[in-house]
Amino acid sequence: MKDNENGIDFSLVLASSVHDMKNSIGMLLASLESVIEDSPPTNEIQARRFSTLHYEASRINSELVQLLTIYRMQNDFLPVLIDEYYILDIFEDQIARNNVLMETKGVGMTLECDGDLNWYVDQDLIGSVVHNILVNCIRYTNSTIYMSAKVENELLCITIADDGKGYPDAMINRPITQIEDVEVSKGGTHLGLYFSDKIASFHKQNNRNGYIELANGGDLGGGIFKMYLP
Amino acid sequence: MSGKINYSKLMFLIADDFGSFRNTVNSMLSSLGATNVVMAATAQEVFLQCQNKKFDVILCDYNLGAGRTGQHVLEELRHKHAISRDTIFIIVSAESSRTIVMCSYDCEPDDYLMKPITAKMLEQRINRLLKQRGIFSTAYAAIEKQDYLTASDILIDLSMAEDRYSNFAQKLLGTVFIRMGDLDKAERLYTRALEVRQVDWARLGLAVVKQARGDLELAGDWLEKIVADNPLYLPAYDAMATNWDKKGEKFNVQFTVQRAVDISPMSILRQKYLAEVATENNDLITALSAQRRSVKLGQYSCHGRAEDHFGFARISSLAVEREMDVDTNIGNEALAILDKAKEQYDLNDVQLAQCSLLAGRIHALERREDLAQSFFAAAEQILENVESNIDLDVDRVLALQSLGDKKKVTELLEELQTVYADDQEALEKLDVFLDEPASDSSREFVATINREGIELYNDARFDEALSCFEKARKLFPKHVGIQLNMVQSLIGKMKADIGDDSVKRDCRDCLNLVESLIDDEHPQYDRYRRLRNMANSI
Prior knowledge:
- The complex is a heterodimer.
- Chain A is an alpha+beta fold.
- Chain A has helices at 10-38, 44-74, 87-97, 99-105, 123-140, 169-173, 180-186, 191-201; strands at residues 82-86, 108-113, 118-122, 144-152, 155-162, 204-205, 208-209, 211-216, 223-229.
- Chain A is globular, with a radius of gyration of 18 Å.
- The two termini of chain A are 32 Å apart.
- Chain B is built from 26 helices and 5 strands.
- The mean pLDDT of chain B is 88.
- Chain B starts with 10 loop residues before the first strand and ends with a helix.
């Protein structure tokens, strides 16, 4: 953190207004959900409008959360609280959080996760990664999303896939770690992936760090996001 | 999730300063079948509701407006025993995860939910927590009754089950073992947990076990490692401060508490502790700012006390007396803080007398003698009708001192020595005035060079440390603390194998002098004995 000539630390100002905006969006989302609940969409067009509203608000919300998290990462303020958690709980929380969005958009979900599968993770950080990818998938999928968690090679592998048109080639062919400065400054952000990769890497065990992988295809034929955690 | 939960049988409380949010959550709960939902807009309303009803679930917003947080509410409910362990307390928050994580270290709510929340999320969390409550309720009841044997039996079974509750059961079991004093079992439990994964709670638990066994060196090393890996893990700092305290190293206690306070400035108990050790260490600048914060935080916290206000007045008057480089307005600030104590708390007579004495002292130091005299007169009037205590008497001595009335000070001190002849603790408090008859400015001088000396000692620069302490000793030849600091530096020198026989001789002389000054009830006696043993074993 540096004080600039005006004596104001701009990153701090930015962080606190991001925080404020995030709270407003939170209120907006909650109100929106009660509106949808009180008067459910009566036709296709209405449903689509609701889902657009909801999607955009969710996206802003999760983007702001990411901004804050990245700010904290850079300032060493980010608490990482790793403990034993049930992965199904994390999945269910995020599915529940995006329930209205999925319903208004008519997206189906296949969930493959053993109820007894537990792992050492930061529940909130991993939850926010799942949320972020999920919101993205809901936007780009045609009809269905697949989520799974299993242990491969002593690593927890979380997969989130959809039947949309997949990740652009440029994104798949480049290592995530190179996203950092250039991409972000171009405004094409990919902040979500940068964020996911960072969070994965906070998970360490026996000199192994977590990481993410992107692919296209699979059973659904769309984008596949994988996160491996030691 | 198996076993449908009947929401209509449960009592809910929603606390949020925003009506719209209360209503949203209310309708979410209704849609789940809840019929008993009470709402509160302020912390005060929560306390009122909890007096009359027993809630199963409390959903409390973190930011409750007017400076109050969900953390304050939870702390106060527990403090007043207004809720039992059976009540599920969930903090709902739009705040940053950092604030929430700090809060969860400090007050341990059952869970926290980030806004925006949905009905489904709410249902899942509540179902999980209710299920957990059902499973742990007998263990909680046993812990509450301090029946640790029963509690540990239940928890052992739960922790062996290898299901989703075993981890939680293990954590709880560790603390129960420590409370029972069964360190062997606690150690085995934490070691086993660490074989699977280096989790902070188990690392901390193991360090606390070592500490309880008296292995302070190892415990300190481990704690330092934990915070190096996770600098925001507050419980480790607390254990570390205790560790330094057990070693008698007050400067390191202060340094450690300061680190924790920098990370989490909103904890009033840590701020108070910091003010206390900094005062002991004569670091009045730090003490002042920590005490100021304590007063401020006390406005919303059940841990706020009128004594925090008095403490601020005491430290600031000391700073003025010693002509330290503090805000020139500090006297007025202290007077305002004393007034606030009268507004905020229902003061008894002794406290009112203390208030007047402290205000008088400040006026006297600011050379407003008339005002000072009238405050003292007011205090004396109250004192005629109440039973005094040592803290009040110390304030009386200080007040008279600030007027420069040496004769009265001496008389009062003599009188007090008779009154408290059988009260060692009280006498210790008077020692400050008796042992160090020199001016306050030179006392500050000594404190400063003493501090310098300790720093040099910590850097193993023993000769420089010694010359520092020597300067202080010239002014206070009978000051036990300084003598012992010298002994410690001389031992350091011997251990490092520098110097000749004269070092040994000096060390012996110092120890002999100290022996003639103290008895086994002196606060520094343990330290003296330890250092003597060390010196003899070299």
